[in-house]
Amino acid sequence: MTTFVDRITLFASAGNGGDGCVSVKREKFKPLGGPDGGNGGRGGDITLVVDPNITTLLDYHHSPHRKATSGRAGYGDRKDGPSGDDLILKVPNGTVVLDKDGNQIADLVGNGTVFIAAQGGRGGLGNLALASSKRRAPGFALLGEPGEERALILELKSVADIALVGYPSAGKSSLIAAISAARPKIADYPFTTLVPNLGVVQAGETRFTVADVPGLIPGASQGKGLGLEFLRHVERCVALVHVLDCGTLETDRNPIQDLEIIESELAQYGGLEDRPRIIALNKIDLPDGAAMADMVSQELRDRGYEVYPVSAASRQGLTELTYAMARLIQKSRAEAAVEERTRIVLRPVAVDDSGFTVTPNADGSFTVAGAKIERWVRQTNFKNAEAIGYLADRMAQLGVEKELFKKGAVAGSEVRVGKGDDAVVFDWEPTIEAGAELLGARGDDTRFDSLWRGREIHHDQLSEEELARQWEFSVPDPHTPAIVAEVINDVEDVAEDAAEAVEELTEELTK
Fold it and tell me: What CA–CA distance (Å, rounded) separates 430 from 409?
């Protein structure tokens, strides 16, 4: 049964935000109490946290689908809904987070390091929060925002100072067991070690970590053997220790050839050229092993390597080897840059940044993209006409309709908000404020024609008689506006009727 897993795919689903509440205050003797619907609760996040007690990704191998709880809907009487609980996932130190395309998102090194894998959705506003001086009692509320869903690849790269590399059965597991408290599986057959082993070594005042990487063979960088699966555990090491088998029973192998093959595989894997190397000639407790070590030691030193004949079984030469490792660690730590406090960088939004983009499509439709607008659409209840009107007002206020008109959109054009399968599609019906597309060729608005159709309006210069009538009706400025001809005729008819009525009344009274 597998007990060590260093690469998995995690399907993280954050919690959804709760819907806002639509409620109106109702109390005895208070018939118009007003809106009192509360906001929905926030959805829970999914957070990765580095835990020193976790050494493998095995738990997420068996259950890769993780989901946080959602927020609850708001209540009446100004009560907000409770938020969802965050889901905290513990991962080993050295976990690398990749997206589905293999791009690195985060490198989690250091106990307590936190990374939000999936963001919870925002809660929708209730009608109490949507009330304003112009909208006294909203009959709608905003929906909760869906939680983020992501497929992430988690890779474990061991955080070790020294890596032991070499052929299978070269004695790496025996060596790490001899210099540390690690107890890996040891046997006399190849590929005994199937997972990396870590051990803590104390050399004088220097303490460091050593990783035993499973055996490499020719073609490991292309996936042969176990090399491709575990070469990533070497990337963080400060130095490499080549464990060469001087007592092998295979007649076609020798320490020089093994070193060249392993170096070739490391070069093909890449990224390890600058790491210092130390040679450990193992198994000198055997007569043939000691003789072989004497034969190749000088040639390896001529190539620039530090060479240490050792025996993991009899512990010969281990003290010199561990102190050589410690010197490399001390040098690396002394040359390491001093950690400075992270500066907080403010990146304000540009003045001319509208927060959205409008893109014409080949099929005549238009795509509107923007985090704010897409969130507004997700939180709109399209079964409520008032909520749709509120969304249209917000988009018009942001300038979406003006931008659509600039890009060539007309009434009835198909508009898509968002991208992909989650896009919301609707036919554009511009509001009056953004009705420039309805203007005629000479600057006349056709909507005014529909309102005043059949009315004859004259804008000629006023005559003296018309000026007198303006004064008679107490018009502030007798020169403007011009008098409508129909209104003048109506006033004359009323005056004549009034005069006839007075005459008839006078005749009746004289009789």
Answer: 10
